[in-house]
Amino acid sequence: MDNTAKTINPFTEETLNTYNLLSEQEAQNAVENAHTCFESWKLKTVKERGKLAFKFADILEENKEELAQLMTDEMGKVKTQGFQEVELCAAICRYTAEQAESMLADEEREFDGGKAIVSYQPIGVILGIQPWNFPLYQVIRYSITNLMAGNTTILKHAANVFGMAQKIEEMYLEAGFPKYSYQSLIIDGETASSLIEHDKVRGVTFTGSDGVGKKVAENAAKLSKKTVLELGSNDAYLVLDDADIPLAVEACVQGRVINNGETCVSAKRFIVTEKNYDKFKSQFTHAMCKLTMGDPNDENTDLGPMAREDLRDKIHEQVSDSIVAGATAVLGCEIPSREGFFYPPSILENVTPNMPAYDDELFGPVASLIKVKDDEEAMQVANDSRYGLGGGIFSKDVEKATELALKHFDTGMVNINGYGLAQPNLPFGGVKDSGYGREHGGFGIREFVNVKSVMITEKS
Q1: Are residues 198 and 241 in the same domain?
Q2: DSSP secondary structure of 155-223
Q3: One of 37, 89, 252, 264 is an active-site residue; which one?
Q4: Is the same domain home to 240 and 226?
C-alpha cells in the first residue's frame, strides 16, 4: 500500500513534492491533541483570540508572494488571482475579529419567574475537509471563525495542495495560536472519514462535490454531529430582455473563466432571451476568443491550466457527452496539444435537459448557452437545477431584477448586473444539492456553537 502523495505542477507536469501520509492512529492522536488544546483555548476571551486573528491577517499579507506562488505551482491558479485570494483571506480574518465580540456576546432575556442568559459557547474540535480550488481561502474561512468561536480545528486538505496545508499551519503558529489549536493533517480521504467517528470531533464542515458531501453528512448524522456543506453548483446567469449586453458579456466572461473556471460559484449556464440571444452569443464568443491561455505566472495570462489531468479529462468527457446528446460546439471543446493540463475557453449551445452541460457542474472554462422565449421562461430554466448556490441577473430594471432575486431565484446568493465572489461581510452558501449552512458575514461563527440557556429563578 502506497502511503505517500505527490503534488504535481499542472503547467509543467513536474512533481513538486512527495508527502508521507499519517497513519490512522497518528490522525486519531491529532484529534486528542486538539481536544486537549480546546480545554484551555475555550477559556480565552474573544478579545484575546481576536488579537491573534489580527496578527494572522498581517502574516498572510507578509507571505502573499509565497502563498500566491504556491497556488500557481500546486493547482495552476493565475498568480495575480492568487494575490487577490490572500487579500480576501486577510480581510476575512479582520472582519471576523472585529465582529466576534458582538456575535458571541451573551444575551439577557426574561422568563416567567426570573431571567435568563443566552450564551454562545464553543463545542470542541471541528473537522474541516476542504478542496484544492481556493486552497487558502477555503481553509481560512472555516478555521478562523471556529477559532474565534473558541473551537479548535483540524484540516484534511486536498492531496494536490499539501504544500499549502503545511504553510497554513506554520502561519497559525507564527501568529501565536497555541499548538494543536489548528492542525493540517496530511491524510487521505479514508482516514478523514474515520475521524468523523472520533468522539472528540464535534462537527464537520465540508466543501466539495455534492456526492461526497452527502456521504460526509450521512456519516456525521448517524452520530448526531452537525455539518456545514458547501457543495457544487451549476449557476445560471440570466440575460433578460432589457439587459445591457456589453455589461453582461464582460461580467459573464469573467464569471466563467475566473480561477480557470474551477469555482463553485462560477457563471456556468447562460440563459438568454430570444431578443438578445444572437447579439449576446456573438459578443460573448468574441470576448472568449480574445482570452490568453498560458503560463499562470505571466501577468498577461487570463486562463491557466486545470489543476489535474483527471479533472481536465473529466470536463472533456462531459463536453463530448453533451455534444453526442445534441449540443453544438461554438468555441474550443478540444484538448490542446501542448504541455500542461490545459482546456481552452469553450462554448456549447443547443444545451437541453439530460445533457451534462445542462444537468451537471462543468468545473472548467466551458459555458453553456441556453435560448429562452422571455424573462419568465428564463427564471423557470434557471431554477430547473438540483443545485442552488449562486446565480446572476442582467437587467436595466434593477427593481425588477431585485424582486426576481429575492422572491423567485432559488439560490443562496444572486449577483445583479455584475459578477462577484465571496465578501467577508456577506453570508456565503446555498440550498438544494448545493448544501446548507453559511460562511462569512458573522453567520459562520455561530454554526458550531452551543446556544445555551441559563435560567435564573428570582425570589418572589
Answers
A1: no
A2: EE--GGGHHHHHHHHHHHHHHTPPTTSEEEE---HHHHHHHTT-TTEEEEEEES-HHHHHHHHHHHHTT
A3: 264
A4: no
